[in-house]
Amino acid sequence: MATVIVVDDSLFMRSMLKDILQDLGHSVIAEAENGHDAVMKYVHFRPDLITMDINMPKMDGLEATKKIVELDSQANILMCSALGQQEAIIKAFKAGAKDFIVKPFEMERVVNAVSKMLGS
Question: Which residues are recorded as modified (4-aspartylphosphate) (predicted)?
Answer without folding.
Answer: 53
